[in-house]
């Protein structure tokens, strides 16, 4: 029972972080009016959070391995909670942006080790699959809950409360985490850290995320976007060289020699790039074309979250336990492609029940099955010493893939819509045709993920294959347990 209580604490912290990714979007107009943001600067209320979040995930995950994941998790909760309080108290734009940056850093530190702690606490294949299902549900459903909660809080109490609501949750989670979670010493505490490598990868990821999110304002072909993107790639290459040569690398090259891990990360990146724009673009279609208000829009995407919850909590663990993550994943990706394909045919004079709702069914089922399978495969090659790093890698790929996918798909939709308007098309038809194009391109991304899943992944099938979601683990949770035995042991130097 103590392990499941610990899981609830971990998921509460993760839910708080995920909620913050979308809860702010609904309150942006109120924040702009209250603090006097210009239209161009308002986007930085979101970007100031995304850049440190995407940039620090990998480093924070490694710190969890070196200094203890419980310690890192609690530290992240404290940073996030303090930053949330500062956001709510902000009386000007500068303070709010600085607090949002700190909040993004705290969110990264908290999120980076959560999956690692789950896989080390739950070593029995069936239990691990169920625990990862809970984690996947929180990851995917938190965004929709943020849209609903953001609208309610902003209308009822003001935008400050979208941040204040985090404070009691963060305090309670931090206190309970210290009492329930076992404090590890850290697997490699005495070996030191690669400070230069840490600086390189953090700078590379932050600049990369900045280039992606800023492309929405400056364009992908602008000197600014290409320049920052090039610098990020140079720093990333320098980091790779550094890791190959240093005696104690921050990101050991062995992490990429395990085929299922590399394949799962590649699949995850493309799947997230293709599907992440769904919520953003569907919201625009519902509001700008069909005329939905904020609450109606939030309710319109709830079916996806409900199906994700049903799949990830109940069906996915059973299917993965019986057939293996590698067998479940392709079918899930096909369903996601089908859902995006349906959205690729939405009409300008459409209706929710006939044109949008049918897509939510395969999208919810597919994503609810895919996320637990991918999370298990991505962690399958992690040793106890590397599980925090593997968790950080999984979340980094998700964050960067989401940012890139959203930027590309929204830019395509806007560009296509602008061209049609210039040619004399009606507003609704131009907007809808732009959304249709974006959904079709998203489906192509997911097809790419399907190709990788089929050709690269080789995890075991059958009932024993639940271990495909269970790599080597140590008894670092609240209750000691025997490490699970992986069918394919991780490759070591």
UniProtKB/TrEMBL annotation:
Pfam families from the UniProt entry: MFS_1
Biased composition (Low complexity): 463-483
Recorded topology in the membrane: Multi-pass membrane protein
Gene3D superfamilies xref list: MFS general substrate transporter like domains (1.20.1250.20), Multidrug resistance protein D (1.20.1720.10)
CDD domains: MFS_MMR_MDR_like (cd17321)
Domain of life, source organism: Bacteria
Subcellular location: Cell membrane
Region (Disordered), start-end ranges: 463-493
Swiss-Prot/TrEMBL keywords: Antibiotic resistance, Cell membrane, Membrane, Transmembrane, Transmembrane helix, Transport
Major localization class: membrane
Major facilitator superfamily (MFS) profile domain span: 6-461
Keyword Transmembrane helix attached: yes
Name by which UniProt lists this protein: MFS transporter
Transport is among the record's keywords: yes
Spans traversing the lipid bilayer: 39-60, 72-91, 97-120, 132-153, 159-183, 195-216, 222-241, 261-286, 298-316, 323-344, 356-379, 400-417, 437-457
PROSITE patterns (alphabetical): MFS
